[in-house]
Structures are given as structure tokens and as C-alpha cells.
Amino acid sequence: MRPESNIMFVPVNRPKLDGNEKKYLNECIDTGWISSDGPFVKKFEEKMSNALDREFGVAVSNGSVALELALQALDLKAGGEVIVPSFTIISCGNAIIKSGLKPIFIDCSKDDLNSTPKMIEDAISSKTVAIMVVHLYGHPCDMDKIESIAKNYNLKLIEDAAEMHGQYYKDRPCGSFGDVSTLSFYPNKHVTTGEGGMVLTNNKDLMEKIRFYMNLCFGKGDSRYLHYDIGSNYRFTNLQAAVGLAQVESLKKTVLRKREIGSLYNKGLSNIDYLKTPIEFLEYSENIYWVYPITINGDINFVKSFKSYLEDSGIGHRSFFTPLHLQPCYKNIIDQNNILPNCEELYKFGLYIPCGNGITDEEVDYVIKKIKKFNFK
Ligand SMILES: *Cc1c(COP(=O)(O)O)cnc(C)c1O
């Protein structure tokens, strides 16, 4: 027990599963429907795609394969270039490379952490086939402008909305932009199913291709075991969908709570001179604090000392993404001499602190109090 509080450890994320999750899961067990053929899968797909203003949603095993399926279904010209932020999860770069395409990594804004329309447009070449837009940490990208760039240059637009369930760009939900959008349902996302993901589109052909590839390209009817293409098993189970359905029912509440946590931190951590807190409002959005990112104004030793202070205080934290253009696994694939100054700085000086949906006010208060007491030695 810590002397000044009964808090032992505040994890960087704790999911909240206090709606109909248990009830729906029990239904699966009582009825024996546990595979991907169970009724919750369709219900979850419909509920989620409706909530995000999409015609079709295909639930899959996780957000990483959702990106792979999106690219596979778009059937882009081999070797074509896909513009993608460097400041994102490895899944984005991997999906592009695995699809036989070439990632063109671009920088991001130091303020809202997203790539700007100008950064995207500047990266377009005669080989560009698509833009993969990723909304990061809490605000959407500037989608009106990005949509018109995609249209003007005749490029496919893939939207990775894994961190944005329940977020809006102006009055349009994230997950509704471009040719195809993807989601993840990992436990730190606003809708979780443990593991899981979804591909969303308004295009029926695309949806059918995604369903085909995510289920081993089975044939129809009597020809079930006749396969005309090479697919994978990326199916989603009824058990996951049971949890997911309950989670979507709570989505509005989740977003309200995330904003509440965000404003508690904003208030509590303002006026600390070495620490930059996230922007609450952009002209087109209100932050939903998928995570609560802070950047440290100090040198590397300062950051190190701050992080070990958090550890000693039992406060979970996570560094920002290591930029993809610097990843050792891409060493022989891309030219790594490219300098992208903003994301290179962010990853050295940025971290995020506990902000899961399940965090209590008391825990937030503890984190704030502790951070206020930090002294660099
Ligand atoms: C979480 C996440 C993913 C990957 O999802 P998984 O379900 O963990 O595979 C993809 N893109 C972004 C932006 C994410 O945050």
C-alpha cells in the first residue's frame, strides 16, 4: 500500500464491460452457438456499420488483418505506392508490404499528431495508387480535404479508424470515409471484443471480396470445397460478437466517459511548464482521448527520469509509436535516409498515461497529483 493513497497501480488501460456482455455471452453458451456462424456476428456487424453510417461491415479476427483484407479486396496494381503516416502502428506498413505494395511514409503534425492534407498531397507521385489515412490518438484527420485530394488524383482511400469508434469529423462518423474503412476491437479501443476487427464499405462488390478472402475463398453450394483463389481464415466468433454487440450499445456512454477523463487531465495538468497536453478542440472535432498523450519539453534524461518516476509511482504509461520509416524490419525494403522531423521528435518525447474506459476518478486524481509532484533530479 502506498502511504498517501490506497492505489497500488494504475494500468495504462483497463476496459469496461458492464453492459449486456455477460448476458449475451451466456446466450452463446446456453445455445451452443460459439463459432462464426452464430447469430451475434450478423447483429454486431449490422449494429456497428449502422452506427458508423456504412452499408456493410465484415467482422474479422483483428484490426491488422482488416487492413490486409481492405488492400487485398481493392486489388491495387502491384508495386504501386501507398501514402501512409510514419507515426502509426506497424500493422499499417505491414499490410501495404504484404499486399505487394510500397509504403511511402509521411510526417505528422506535432499538434494534433495526424498527417496533414499537404503532407499527403506532397507525397503523391505517378506511382501512387492509394492513401491510407490513420486518425491518431483522439482527433480525426482533415477528411474533407483528404477526400478531395483522393478524388482529384484518382486514388483509392483507405481509412484506418481503429482508434476512432464514436468520433466524428464535423457531422460524419469516423469509419465512414473513403472506399473502405477498418476498425480494431483490441481491449484498449472504444469497442472491444478481446481481439477483433472490422472492414467497412458501401461497395457491395468489395464487401463480397472481403467475405471471400476472410473465409478461405470457399466455393458456393455443392462446390464449397472448390477454391478459385487463395484466402485465409480471419473469421470472428459468436462469443466475440456477443461482447461486441454489448460494447456498441455502450459506445455513446464510453465516448462521454473518455471525454470526462480527458477534461479531468486537461484541468489537472495545465500549467505544468515541461508538459504539453493534447488539444481539446479542432475546428472540425472534439478530442475523444483514445489515449491521453503528453509530450515532454526537456532533454532525453528528463524524459527518462519522468518515466521512471511514473513507474515508481505505480502509474502505467506507454511511449509513442516508433516511426515506421525507422523500423529495423523495413531496413531492406525502404530508403531509411528520409528524415521526418515531427514524428522523430514525438517518439522521443511523447508518452501516454492511464486513460482506459475503466479508470476511476480517484485513479485519475492520483495520477495528476503524482505528476504535479515530479521533480527532475
Ligand atoms: C490497434 C490498431 C490497429 C491494429 O489492430 P489490432 O486489432 O491490434 O490488430 C491498427 N491501426 C491502428 C491505428 C490501431 O490503433
Order of helices and strands: HHEHEHEHEHEEEEEHHHEEEEHEHEH
Class by alpha and beta content: alpha/beta
Instruction: Extract low-pLDDT stretches.
Output: none
Largest sheet: 7 strands, mixed
Number of discrete helical segments: 12
* Beta strands, count: 15
Name the average pLDDT: 96
Ligands bound here? Answer: pyridoxal-5'-phosphate
| End-to-end Cα distance | 25 Å
**Envelope shape:** globular
Q: Rg, please?
A: 21 Å
Helix content: 25-40%
Give the neighbour order of strands across the main sheet.
1-9-8-5-4-2-3
Report strand %. 15-25%
Characterize this entry briefly.
It is built from twelve helices and 15 strands. It has 377 residues and is α/β, with parallel strands linked by helices.
Question: How would you describe this protein?
Answer:
- This protein has 377 residues and is of the alpha/beta class.
- It has helices spanning 21-31, 39-51, 63-74, 90-98, 117-122, 143-152, 204-213, 238-249, 251-269, 300-312, 341-349, 361-372, and strands spanning 56-60, 81-85, 102-106, 128-134, 156-160, 168-169, 172-173, 180-184, 197-201, 275-276, 281-282, 285-286, 292-296, 318-319, 350-353.
- A seven-stranded mixed sheet has the order 1-9-8-5-4-2-3, with helices on both faces. The protein has a four-stranded antiparallel sheet with strand order 10-13-15-14. Strands 6-7 form a two-stranded antiparallel sheet.
- A hairpin with a 2-residue loop joins strand 6 (168-169) and strand 7 (172-173).
- Helix 2 packs parallel to helix 8, helix 3 (63-74) packs parallel to helix 4 (90-98) and helix 9 (251-269) packs parallel to helix 12 (361-372).
- The relative contact order is 0.18.
- Pyridoxal-5'-phosphate binds at residues 62-64, 88-89, 91, 134, 160, 162-163, 184, 186, 197.
